[in-house]
# Entry
Amino acid sequence: MLKAQIIGHIGNDAFVHTNEAGSVANFSVAHSERWKDSKGVQKERTTWVSCSLFDKENVYPYLKKGQQVYVEGFPGAKQYKDREDKLIPQMTIRVNSIQLLGGAKSSGAGNDQETTAGATGAAAGNDVTDDLPF
# Structure
């Protein structure tokens, strides 16, 4: 079994599809790496991961642009064509566990609360004292 774990920020609000089989939220997570090259020049690389989260309606409203998340699930790959008609590879994850970490990137306010939605659909919080539904 392959498993992927990503910590990053959501790129856009989740797009939710619902049909007779259930619902799915699609969103992208950006993970950035920073390092200095051999000449001491600061470098950065951002990897975008396309995520699909099934049947976790209680989490969908919180999957907003800038929200920091930890996602875990089954990795895959697909390709898409860019504006110049070049095929671009893209990593995908079928999410089976997600944790909301801190506040949104743009809010500037830290929030140490974590919320988990596991693979069974059961959700649990760590010392959650507010009125979140999960």
In short: The first strand starts at residue 4 and ends at 10. Residues 4-124 form a domain with the OB fold (Dihydrolipoamide Acetyltransferase, E2P) fold (CATH 2.40.50.140). The chain is about 0% helix and 60% strand.
